[in-house]
Amino acid sequence: MRKGFVGEILHYFENIPKYIPEIYKAKNSFWGDEKIIIDMLEGEEKIIKEALFNSWFLFDYKLSNGKTPLKTYYLINFLNFDENDRENYKNLLKSKYGLWRIKKVDFEQGMLLSNLVDGSEFYVKEKKATYNAKVDDVILQRITKIDDHYELISPDGNSYFPDGLRNPTVGILLRYKKLNPKIIKNVFKKQERLAELSDQYLNNDFLQKKIVGPNECFCDECHKTGKIGAFLTNEITGEPLVFCLDCTLKINARKNKTTVEQERHKREVLFKASNLFTMTKVKDYCEAKGLAIESAGMDILNKILPSIQEAWNGLSVKERRSFDGLNETEMIVKFSNIHINFPK
Ligand SMILES: [Zn+2]
């Protein structure tokens, strides 16, 4: 499989007249009202934006034959491939797109990546990408098997998140079970717009006025005072909102098609697990340092709690689900396998 095969496949479709209207339709669907702006872009910016579309078009878009362009290309050209490429294209059809945590970097050799949703791991052969890669940073990429190894194959510009799990965009993207470049484009666009809108709220302690006690707020939903449940942003106006616990549970129940009681239970279970995790890891730290846990003062806690929090946030959805229904002892056993990079 030659370098630049993604471009080649796209080129193939652009040169067959019957596919021109399909590409046009796909572009309209992908860009919506942004299409005119995209058409006017030039240079690197254009290349980056187009790479995002190309990736979505080839791997996710369904042509009028009901198949993706990649699958269509594979079926039409099947007999022209040698056996090796046939295997490579087959693997390409199974390629995996998503957020990956960098677990290990071997300079100019490759990286070990772990999927943030299902925890699956791949060692990818890479040279250039290792120059600036750091452990615990997060990348958005498509991984495929080529010959005897795995490679990264989505060269779009917004794919690296230097703060890893502390990056708010990573948190937003993790709400999607399965990502594709169109979702990415829409999330980035929404964020740009919200950043502009919320600027106007930042200067006049807008949110501060809604917090009325250490754990109490004036709720934007029921307009009563209550225990703080969640902070959100109005997606149209950019206004920061705060909801009381009761309203938060009601909103979540509506969203997840569950009952308020189920939501309350879910929250308690998660809260218990995350508290237990913190306790266990503080204890581990103290034991390793030969300290009595009672002597762990604020200075020690301030030092180690951020890394514990980060490790907790970094667990995949699948890993978190695996705590459901466990008792404390069973959970502690599971927690002992989770490594934390404590600050020196
Ligand atoms: Zn409320």
Q: Approximately what portion of the residues adopt beta-strand conformation?
A: 15-25%
Bound molecules: zinc ion
Radius of gyration: 24 Å
Q: Return the average pLDDT rounded to an integer.
A: 85
Helix and strand sequence:
HHHHHHEEEEEEHHEEEEHHHHH
State the major sheet. 6 strands, antiparallel
Number of strands: 10
SS content category: alpha+beta
Alpha-carbon distance between the termini? 46 Å
Which runs of at least 5 residues are low in confidence (pLDDT < 50)? none
- Tell the overall outline: globular
Q: Counting H and I runs of at least 4 residues, what is the number of helices?
A: 13
Return the domain count.
4
Q: In which range does the helix fraction lie? A: 40-55%
Oligomeric composition of the shown chains:
single chain
Per-chain topology:
Elements: H1 5-14, H2 20-31, H3 35-40, H4 43-59, H5 69-77, H6 83-93, E1 96-106, E2 110-115, E3 121-125, E4 138-146, E5 149-152, E6 160-161, H7 168-173, H8 181-202, E7 211-213, E8 216-218, E9 225-233, E10 240-244, H9 245-256, H10 260-289, H11 298-313, H12 317-321, H13 328-335
Antiparallel strand pairs: 1-2, 1-4, 2-3, 4-5, 4-6, 7-8, 8-9, 9-10
This protein binds zinc ion.
